[in-house]
Each structure stands twice: as structure tokens, then as C-alpha cells.
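To fix ideas, we close by showing one paired sequence and structure record:
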Amino acid sequence: MLYPEPIERLIDHLTRLPGIGRKTATRLAFFLLNAKDTYTSDLGKSISEIKERIRLCSRCFNITDIDPCHICRDEKRDKTVLCIVEEPSHLMVIESAHPGIYRYHILHGVINPLEGIGPDEIRIPEMKERIVREGIKELIIATNPTMEGNTTAHYISELTKPFEVKITRIASGIPIGGDIVYIDPLTIKSAIDNRRSM
């Protein structure tokens, strides 16, 4: 061990965080060692609090500290449209672009047969129940444009045909400010396939 055991243990825990290698973990450990006691105490409380207070909303499965979450409680949102996303972080991105418009349903994953993840392992059964219970008229499927995301979108589209809901899929293509020269062929194909009139 290079450092005293408590520091080594902290470094070890920090390296388990996504994107944190030993060098960064060491720098963070020494930052915390030299930080004011109030800061480290508040940080420890914040970490404990997210494990104690954060849970999933019983309606949309977003992360929340109240149930139902503030989005599901918002009466100004369109009650007939449900935006389907893979993860809570995806909801946040869509919400930042279109605040206060949609209600959401978080799947917490995508269908991936190679990893043994089928429709019942993600929140598709609950989505089906919501369509009926809440009188949903449109599903906006906002899964990633990956093989698994597209498979999930196709499955949802087929599954919900008997409900006579409008199914839309977010477009994918060239990012705003992007240069066509640097865009991969699949993205170019998707952008052309999803073109619209001007």
C-alpha cells in the first residue's frame, strides 16, 4: 500500500465510480482529506440520503423523493401523451428541451435477448397497464437509435397496435451544427430516411 489504509480504502471505493481511475481517485481522496469537516460531513450525509430517500415513482418509474413524482403530479401536462424513455437521465434530456409538456414512462433498460433481458424484465407490462388506465392516445418512443433501442421500439409498436394509440418515434440524424463529412453512414441514412417537408 502506498498510503495509510483508510486512504487506500477510500481510493478503492472512488475507483469503482464510472470514469474514475486510480489517479483521479487519489486526487479526490486527498481533496477530501484536506477539505473542511463540514464539507465531508455534508457529502457523507448526501450519499446516505440518496440511498434512504430516493425511490422510483409508482406511476412513471422516474427517480424521486415523493410518490408520485412532481412530473406525474403536474396537471398542466398533456395526459393523453406518454413519452417512453430508457432511463431517468434520458427523461431529463427531453425535459430540458421540452419542459412541462409530456408525461413519461421509464423502461429502465431495453430488450436485449443476448443478455437475457426480455419485455418483462423492463417496465413494458406497466406501460401497457398505463395505456388503458390513463386513456393514452399517443406514445412517443424515445429509445436510443441502437439495435436494442430499435428492437424495443418495434416491440412496443407491435404490442400496442390493439390499443389504437398513435405511435411516433423520435427522429435521428445529423446533429445541429454538425458537418456531413464527419457523420457516419448509418446516421446519414437515418437522416435521409426521416427527412420532412420544409
